[in-house]
């Protein structure tokens, strides 16, 4: 007797997720709203493929036998390394450079799709997730950066999150000026300082001070080595971090707060020309933000670091300000759902001339989670098809005719194709499909020239109030009959009422 073949265990790879019809409908509704805002601002769609040549992705150059650090890679038939895209920005830079002669300058586009990270997955950390980006390539001035900030605010308002977010703005040039004044010029030390500043929300000013100095020991006893700065170097950096704290009686995000913060920053950059340029750019951005009526929604926050080695000027981050419970049961601010900034060096990897660029990226999955928590996700399980039950197998052509009539009228419909002849099991199938109604035609109905329509939505509501099984059978809640020729009109009326 031959052995039965071994069955494969169905397993979803770690860091990936399946999406149900309800998930797809909800995300689709959210993306449609974001798209509407992007297009209102004059951005057009473009789509790039999942794969790019690995060298296109920048920091993932094929310098090993298999360049899979951070990306998923393979070789094509001419031994060229290709990788699944890590983000949507590097493919845009390649697309712009490749089509430089034909594209308008600046080039304003948006892109939505999955990106892939070959990293260790964890809670809320996926290997495949969706982003929704918008970029202006070839736009030089702070006007383009201000527009990105205002567009992010409009997206949040459109999604129903008004009053529950802020768009935080900073400029990397200002920070570079402060670091230069403090005598910090080495890249490795500078990176450690930036990471310390980035921990302000988590550890507070004193925690940042420790990370700028010798280091910090956490509650578990783990030690994080610091930047090794002297007290004289630490003080201007802490003053920079504190420069955005509003004075007593001054509302955070108000014009008075913006002016005071810009003045504070101007006093911390010393003679740095880079720092001065950054201060001037921030002043220009907030002049535009204020004039357009976005004050309070777009705020100046010097603690925003974002993209430690990526951005070259203004940086921005969308932060949701409502609280949620973390895994320890503590109330914490939901935090960032997207951001962006100016990245003037990326396209120049492909072309000799400088090409300025600025853009934003919204984390679709994380934003969807936020909308779910606030009741703003905007879509439930989509309605299934109207199901025509098969009461008599030899009448299948009649049932198929009904289905065709419904479909021609634009109604989503199907004939029951399962093997069961049992009425209850066929209705149970329709329930699982989230069907709004089933169509019933047995021999008695055919003789009378009628069909029965069972409204599954109304039936569930009525059945909830009936406790006796015999009463339920007699009442047949939600069920009514119509003439066969009136089937389509009756279903259309029912669906409009539902």
UniProtKB/TrEMBL annotation:
One MF annotation (Gene Ontology) recorded for this entry: ATP binding
Principal location listed in the UniProt entry: cytoplasm
Signal peptide: none
Segments forming domain Aminoacyl-transfer RNA synthetases class-II family profile: 35-382
Cellular location(s): Cytoplasm
Family from the record: Belongs to the class-II aminoacyl-tRNA synthetase family.
Protein name as it appears in the record: Histidine--tRNA ligase
Organism field: Devosia elaeis
UniProt lineage: Bacteria, Pseudomonadati, Pseudomonadota, Alphaproteobacteria, Hyphomicrobiales
């Amino acid at each position: 007797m031959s052995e039965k073949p071994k069955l494969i265990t169905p397993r979803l790879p770690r860091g990936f997720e399946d999406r149900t019809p309800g998930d797809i409908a909800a995300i689709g509704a959210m993306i449609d709203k974001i798209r509407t805002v992007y297009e209102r601002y004059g951005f057009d769609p473009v789509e790039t493929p999942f794969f790019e040549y690995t060298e296109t992705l920048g920091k993932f150059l094929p310098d090993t036998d298999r360049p899979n650090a951070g990306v998923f890679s393979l070789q094509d038939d001419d031994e060229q390394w290709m990788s699944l895209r890590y983000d949507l920005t590097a493919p845009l830079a390649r697309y712009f450079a490749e089509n430089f002669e034909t594209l308008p300058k600046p080039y304003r586009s948006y892109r939505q799709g999955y990106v892939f990270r070959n990293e260790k997955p964890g809670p809320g950390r996926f290997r495949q997730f969706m982003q929704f980006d918008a970029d202006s390539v070839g736009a030089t001035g702070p006007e383009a950066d201000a527009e990105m900030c205002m567009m992010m605010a409009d997206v949040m308002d459109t999604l129903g999150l008004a009053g529950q977010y802020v768009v935080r703005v900073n400029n990397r040039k200002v920070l570079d000026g402060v670091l230069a004044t403090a005598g910090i010029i080495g890249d490795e030390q500078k990176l450690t300082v930036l990471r310390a500043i980035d921990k302000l929300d988590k550890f507070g000013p004193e925690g940042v001070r420790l990370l700028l100095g010798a280091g910090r020991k956490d509650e578990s006893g783990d030690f994080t080595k610091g930047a090794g700065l002297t007290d004289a170097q630490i003080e201007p950096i802490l003053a920079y971090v504190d420069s955005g704290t509003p004075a007593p009686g001054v509302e955070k995000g108000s014009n008075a707060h913006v002016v005071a913060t810009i003045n504070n920053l101007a006093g911390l950059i010393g003679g740095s020309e880079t720092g001065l340029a950054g201060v001037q750019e921030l002043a220009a951005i907030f002049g535009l933000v204020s004039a357009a009526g976005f004050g309070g929604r777009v705020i100046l926050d010097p603690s925003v670091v974002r993209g430690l080695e990526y951005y070259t000027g203004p940086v921005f981050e969308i932060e949701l300000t409502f609280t949620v419970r973390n895994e320890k049961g503590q109330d914490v601010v939901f935090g960032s759902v997207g951001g962006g900034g100016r990245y003037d060096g990326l396209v120049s990897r492909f072309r000799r001339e400088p090409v300025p660029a600025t853009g934003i990226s919204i984390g679709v999955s994380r934003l969807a989670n936020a909308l779910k928590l606030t009741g703003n996700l905007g879509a439930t399980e989509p309605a299934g098809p109207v199901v025509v039950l098969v009461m008599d197998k030899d009448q299948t052509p009649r049932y198929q005719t009904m289905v065709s009539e419904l479909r021609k009228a634009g109604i989503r419909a199907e004939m029951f194709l399962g093997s069961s002849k049992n009425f209850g099991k066929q209705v149970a199938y329709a329930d699982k499909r989230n069907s709004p109604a089933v169509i019933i035609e047995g021999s008695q109905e055919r003789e009378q020239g009628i069909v029965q329509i069972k409204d599954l939505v109304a039936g569930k509501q009525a059945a909830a109030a009936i406790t006796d099984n015999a009463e339920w059978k007699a009442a047949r809640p939600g069920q009514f009959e119509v003439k066969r020729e009136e089937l389509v009109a009756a279903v259309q009326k029912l669906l409009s009422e539902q």
